[in-house]
Design brief:
It is a single chain. Strands 17-16-15-10-9-20-19-18 form an 8-stranded parallel beta sheet. It has a 6-stranded antiparallel beta sheet with strand order 21-22-23-28-25-26. The chain has a 4-stranded antiparallel beta sheet with strand order 1-3-6-5, with helices on one face. Helix 11 packs antiparallel against helix 12 (419-427). By secondary structure, it is an alpha/beta fold. Strand 22 (555-561) and strand 23 form a beta hairpin. The chain is built from 17 helices and 28 strands. The structure holds calcium ion (CA). Calcium ion binds at residues 138, 140-141, 143-144, 164, 166.
């Protein structure tokens, strides 16, 4: 036993020596380039290739210093700390790697920063459209599939396979989105997901959703690659539209090139046996919580093929943060949506957010924290609660308002139910530093579609969209809501991720055009368009204050107001018409005698007794 172990060790040593005796090679450098004149002069280069960590590195480039070289367990990696001083000029510097008689020269480009828009942020002045690029529009059939990728399939008849949608297709629909009143586009992640098909729930599924990155510096070539993304952003910006990128810091695809030959074991959170996150968020905020529960939530893997990155390893943290900065600088994206925000190491998230905000002061960041209460939601954004950890995230997806709006439409009115749910959620806004920076929504790619949730009821559909587009926050809408796409996630989430009709070659219907839509779909489209453009063109809807009155008898009234305008939103959730005595709202209505109905453009007189049709929401711009 002893002897065979000894022999085994000898064999291992010999193998290692043989490997080390081989010449070194540099195959990858991340980031793939950088810029001069960035606010933070520090840059950490990840160098990868056989024995790349055994080279002694140096460089000779005016204004740039190599401060330190880090080596790790795996001899195939070196991490170089550089300082790029204010005198450094754009150009290609040469990294020199030496070992014995071998000398390697690796070019690395320092670009000049251009003055194109980037990191512009999104605010309550915006209306975000969320689309899955694989399911929205296919503008280039030649990139639908590639034989050299781990998943070489594309098949629109299979709900779990890639369907061929891409950035070129989305770029062709920007006119449609702009006409709808959209001001920002958020795609589910666009980075390379060179993942094989995985068996989930008994079906083989592709990574068309994009949440399993396999390269942080490459946009998936099935979406068109880096150049298609650059030109998409450029075209969007030229049209006055912004682009939100979906970031995933918590995990990566198990097929990520870096995870197939890890720098060190602690690049990931490792467990003695496979441990999934519990997905429970209470252990993170619970003052009575157990450390074990907290660790499982934060360090457990998202699923077996999406392993959990160890962000407390400074090399991992730098890798992720620099990728974020590089992405904004290279592509010009304006804001970040952050996936699974609450499962990330929160001190890391603060560092990452701060690095982005230091470089791009106007950038907006809104993470996904899928919680059911205001306290937990506040924890992940700038808040006024005395938590031991203080988040610096400026925004967040408003899951509390999402569920309360749906409850308000689904439940009968009572002391706590129905429209009281919506009212009560907003009444707790005091916990946030700025609730107007939260991103509001009625559904997304992970939920049942809105129209199905509210029982396919067109009147309710209009009420919810009216709330979304007139209350505080940054409204976002899931693709297809404007043409009444519906479905539950039964039997799978593919049901809520269907192709946009007309986006794909050979589609029999084209719902991007009025002629391809039914009367009701056109009514829905025009309804969204009317409210979205009103919101877009009226600052009172962006920065105006919100005042809400206690719901009564199934009615709910609130106002948006500033020094120049007052807008009244009056909802009747009852099945019958109600005549509302406006005396109760004198605080906001005094001095106004008339109103313009924003949806119909009709003028209304006699504001003291307001007729609210059954199941409706009026949007009235008050006139003196
Ligand atoms: Ca395509």
């Amino acid at each position: 036993m002893k002897r065979s172990t000894f022999t085994g060790l000898l064999v291992l040593l010999t193998l290692c020596q043989t490997a080390l005796a081989q010449n070194a090679l540099i195959q990858r450098v991340n980031p793939t380039n950088w810029w001069v004149g960035m606010k933070n002069p520090s840059l950490q280069l990840l160098i990868y290739g056989p024995n790349a960590g055994t080279l002694a590195y140096s460089l000779n480039y005016p204004g740039v210093k190599l401060v330190k070289t880090h080596t790790v367990e795996n001899p195939n990696y070196a991490f170089l700390d550089l300082t790029i001083g204010p005198t450094a000029k754009p150009g290609t510097m040469k990294l020199i790697g030496k070992r014995g008689s071998q000398t390697l020269t690796q070019p690395f480009e320092l670009k000049a920063r251009d003055n194109s828009p980037k990191g512009q942020g999104v605010s309550a002045a915006d209306f975000i459209y969320l689309a899955m690029p694989d399911r929205f529009a296919n503008g280039d059939e030649s990139n639908d599939k590639f034989a050299d990728m781990a998943d070489p399939n594309a098949d629109r008849s299979n709900p779990f396979y890639r369907h061929g949608g891409d950035l070129a297709g989305a770029a062709q629909r920007l006119d449609y989105l702009k006409d709808l009143g959209v001001t920002a586009i958020w795609f589910t992640p666009v980075l390379e997901n060179n993942q094989p098909l995985t068996n989930e729930g008994g079906a083989m599924r592709s990574a068309y959703h994009g949440y399993g990155f396999t390269d942080h510096y490459t946009v998936d070539k099935r979406l068109g690659g880096n150049e298609a993304y650059k030109s998409f952003v450029k075209k969007a910006h030229a049209m006055g539209l912004k682009v939100v990128q979906d970031a995933v810091y918590n995990h990566a695809g198990i097929n990520h090139w870096l995870l197939k030959d890890m720098p060190s074991k602690d690049w990931l959170h490792q467990w003695p046996t496979y441990t999934n996150t519990s997905y429970k968020y209470q252990p993170i905020t619970d003052p009575h919580g157990a450390e074990r529960d907290r660790k499982v939530t934060l360090d457990g893997w998202f699923v077996p093929f999406l392993p959990d990155l160890n962000q407390s390893n400074p090399l991992v943290a730098n890798f992720l943060i620099q990728h974020a900065i590089w992405t904004v600088e290279n592509f010009g994206v304006d804001a970040w949506r952050v996936d699974t925000y609450m499962y990330n190491d929160q001190p890391f998230m603060n560092r990452c957010n701060q690095a982005l905000m230091d470089q791009y002061p106007k950038i907006h960041i809104f993470g996904e924290s899928w919680v059911n209460n205001v306290v937990d939601q506040a924890y992940y954004t700038r808040n006024k609660i005395d938590f031991p950890f203080k988040s610096n995230q400026p925004g967040g997806l408003d899951f509390v308002l999402y569920s309360s709006m749906l409850d308000a439409l689904k439940q009968n009115f009572s002391w706590d139910d129905g429209v009281n749910r919506f009212y009560q959620a907003l009444a707790q806004d005091a916990v946030y530093v700025d609730p107007n920076k939260l991103v509001t929504f009625l559904d997304n790619h992970d939920t049942d579609r809105y129209l199905s949730v509210i029982g396919d009821d067109f009147d309710k559909y209009k009420i919810g969209l009216t709330w979304l587009l007139t209350t505080r926050g940054i409204p976002s809408m899931y693709y297809g809501t404007e043409i009444l796409m519906k479905n539950f996630k039964d039997p799978s989430d593919a049901e809520v991720r269907r192709d946009f009709p007309g986006g794909f070659p050979g589609d029999k219907q084209n719902k991007f055009e009025a002629a391809g839509r039914t009367d009701r779909e056109n009514e829905a489209f025009q309804f969204v368009r009317k409210l979205a453009t009103y919101r877009r063109d009226n600052p009172v809807m962006h920065t105006g204050k919100l005042m809400q009155f206690l719901p009564q008898d199934g009615t709910y009234v609130y106002f948006r107001y500033d020094g120049s305008k007052t807008v009244m939103v009056a909802t009747n959730t009852n099945e019958k018409e109600i005549t509302l005595d406006a005396a109760r709202f004198a605080e906001r209505m005094n001095g106004f005698t008339k109103a313009r109905n924003v949806l119909t453009d009709q003028t209304l007189t006699g504001l003291n007794m307001l007729k609210l049709p059954a199941k409706s929401a009026l949007v009235l711009e008050l006139v003196k």
